[in-house]
Amino acid sequence: MRKLNTIVLFTFFFIIQSCDTKTKQGKQTTKNIPEDQESNTKSSFTNKLKIPMPTHEIVDEFYEAIFANDNTKVREMLETKFPANYEPNNKISPLGAVIGTSDNLYLARLLVEGGANINGKENPPVVCCSEYGRLEILKYLVERNADIKNNEAFNKAGFHQFYECGKFLLLNGANQEKGDIRGKLWFFEQAVTKSDYDVLHALLLTEDELNNNNCDGETALIIAIKQNNIQMVSYLI
């Protein structure tokens, strides 16, 4: 009887030891998962996440972060609870809010790369850039193939007297006719004053536009004569 008890105890002890060894091996295997593989798993999980439609409170919080130029908070919200392609019904788009606040190219990139619409029919982002003089964001949007041929971006830049924005748009083939034509007329006058022949060659002007009188009653030719700019006078004649 004692021999039988001894055998049973020995067998029971052996089973426990085997289970313990397998458990430790299992834990060791988990710890030894390569970091890059673990990272890929996390990345794959993140990519599958779909951010739901934000509540009014979250929307307000996000816009406040934009107006405060809080890059960190905007990025965190885009990664967790605010969709970059969100399009509100009763306010400007997040990208429009960024443009209206400052020339913050970092935030603009975050939104565009996240899926924000760069060719909205109502108040397109390039038109917003022209209105506020956001040259860096404007360049980025054009680089991303934003439409400048079917909106008033160029004339808007001239109307608000942002010469560099207008020049960039003009030299990249922007539409010269849409919008308030006073923008183009101001731009023409500035190009004459600056002797900017690249711009003058690119402008498409009618005879009436060439002979337009500004608020002081001066034409482009009179401006060139007053500057004693013989080369410009010859060009205009």
TrEMBL record:
It comes from the Bacteria. Residues 25-44 are annotated as: Disordered. SUPFAM superfamilies: Ankyrin repeat. ANK repeats lie at residues 216-237. Signal peptide: none annotated. Keywords: ANK repeat, Repeat. This is Ankyrin repeat domain-containing protein. It comes from Mucilaginibacter galii.
